[in-house]
User: What shape does this take?
Amino acid sequence: MAILPNMKELMARPHRDLLAEQAKIFKALGHPSRLLMVDALRGGEKCVCDLQALTGADMSTVSRHLAVLREAGVVRSEKHGTNIYYTLALSCLDTFLQCTSTFIAARIREKAGLLGYGEQAS
Amino acid sequence: MAILPNMKELMARPHRDLLAEQAKIFKALGHPSRLLMVDALRGGEKCVCDLQALTGADMSTVSRHLAVLREAGVVRSEKHGTNIYYTLALSCLDTFLQCTSTFIAARIREKAGLLGYGEQAS
DNA sequence: TTCATATTTGGCAAAATAGCCATGCTCTAT
DNA sequence: ATAGAGCATGGCTATTTTGCCAAATATGAA
Assistant: This one.
């Protein structure tokens, strides 16, 4: 007999669902190509062909990546003529991306400092 | 029409590295248990045993999850006596988590309970 | 020392993910 | 109707992730 019921039983259903949905968003953003595409979408809507040119990956691969982002609700798609345009649906990404950038930069500087490298800030 | 070189050649190295590090952070946050733990850490440092009680998962599983978060730089660990305490290292999470919560709540309301796969048939 | 507690790690099998090719679908133009 | 462009999807394999058990490690207590 288990000492404690596991997380699923411990948490109320709505909270668990919210958590799962949030995790889904993070997971969708957790791939370099997908993050690159999302970052590009901050500058406005793009068709799949644009995003393919950006990442250089196979069209089918790009399409699958976009499906992941779409199902997580990070992006939204809209068909115009023969093209499908993707837009950023998650508004609050800017701040967070900027923050993680700064965070990572600081970490690198810190690490470089510890190793005694004369990293010049550019 | 030359096939473009792939993403790796297209991007300058520092940009690519930053992207990879950012993706690593997102990926680390992209699991319900890990997100739950990180969320709990917003309230202050916790030992592994606390986080195990919280998630209800096996101790070894929790330890592995924490390793993922640690390697992404999301959390930091510190040993005090016989326990190891984990702290949130990524400061800017609050805002983003709140934002995604709101975002998801709105989406749920919008779709009237259709979670997950809800692609609207146009 | 020996023992117990707290945490990590090795190793394994099941599940999920990534990426490619080929194919299918849906427009638009001819 | 046919062709072709732009995307999505089926199907496959290789890789990664997850989660459990068992074993190793470290620390403090008796």
User: Anything to note?
Assistant: Residues 31, 57-58, 60-61, 64-65, 68, 79, 81-83 of chain A lie near DNA strand C (CB under 10 Å from a C1'). Residues 106 and 116 of chain A are 15 Å apart (CA to CA).
